[in-house]
Amino acid sequence: MRKRGQHLKTAIVNLKVVLPNFLFGLRILCLLLLIKIGVEQTPIGKQMEATAYSYLMSSLGFDRTIPIVILDISQLAMKSMDRGDGQIRYTPRDKLKAIIQALANQGPTAIGVDVDFSPLTDDFVRPNEDPGFFDFCMQLKNPDQTTIPVFLGVFRQREFPMSYWLGADEYQQLAATIAIVGEPSEVVKRMPRWYEIPGSAQHGRTMCASLAAQLPDATVETYQSRTKHERGAWWSWAINSNPGRERDFLVDYSALPALISNRLRTIEPAVISDQGWRVRDNIVLIGDATCMGINDTGTEAEDAFLTPGFAAPVPGVYLHACGAYTLANRPLYELTWLGRLCLDVLLSVIILGIVTAVHLHYTARGEARRVNLHALEVLFTWLIACAMLIIGVAFVKFTRLMWDDFLIVIPLLLFHPSLSRIIRRVRRAIVPFWELITFAPEEEVEDVAAEEDKREEGS
User: Is the pTM of this model over 0.90?
Assistant: First the structure.
């Protein structure tokens, strides 16, 4: 019994020796977390997160059989007309009608048109053509006489109730907003699953969600029910495992290169008929897919946006396609704010815990002077950082859990040992001030300074 008491007393003494270093490391961790939160709000921090998102996106891979086809109508010349207050440019309805009919003859699952058909302030863009064109789209059928869902883009009237989106309530079922939320200078990582109409309890339909809902094997409704059971999961505080209930969702851009290279670039109905095998049983998204660095025209689309992994802006039609692809069967998950914080703390505590355990081991053997704490901390920090890069990519690939701030975490993690050493040296230089803010006895401060001097000499 006396022997056990002696062992316990020795263990407590040894713990008192190593505990100050562990607590000091936790103080540095708190400081680094504050720095990280500040960096995340800066343009540099946002760019680092976008770079990390692109890096993780490249590891996801994509299904070779993408059920979405882009019909590039950039060759279709816009027309203009005088509306009294200036020239209005519009897409010719007769040409679009011929293109849509040619597509319908090939039996697509659904058709989306990335063109703004919403009325002007007082009337339809083409009062003599738009109502007839809308009726044609509502009655569109495939060769089996099955109605083909058609969704027409809305942008100008998106702030009004959906009954106004296409100028009349009977055309509401065709309307889908093509608005993409975000600043033009920012990389678009998220897209709206529905559009919040100001002052209305009604949610506006988005193009990507409307198209995703038409896929037979993964509709938006089954997407909701598939993740519904996860709402009460024990990990929900750390992982947003139900992106279907959120307005905005992370977009999977892994299929973007394939969508670009496999786009159907024509405005001729005969060519569409010849390429019918590419359209059949797939979603077709019609739009101007012109983009700098993607085609040979050397022009840039008016609705181009920055996306992860692409230096040149990408036309909005591709973003809608990637959004539909994500909502259909490729949901991405993300850490909550609390989940990110806990992960950042966990990584640092693992390093501090290993260093403290080694220090405690040698202290118990009476060889604490032989331990170079700074070198140990540097070694294990680099090991953890390398593991984050290697294991993290595989983790994202298999779980689809995006952790896009790791490029901020890793540099700060590597800076932890150096910052600890710098603060120790500064603290020894201003011992009286440190004594004041820590309320430590003067003799204890002197002992700590002397001990740190010996460690510095050993390292």
Answer: no
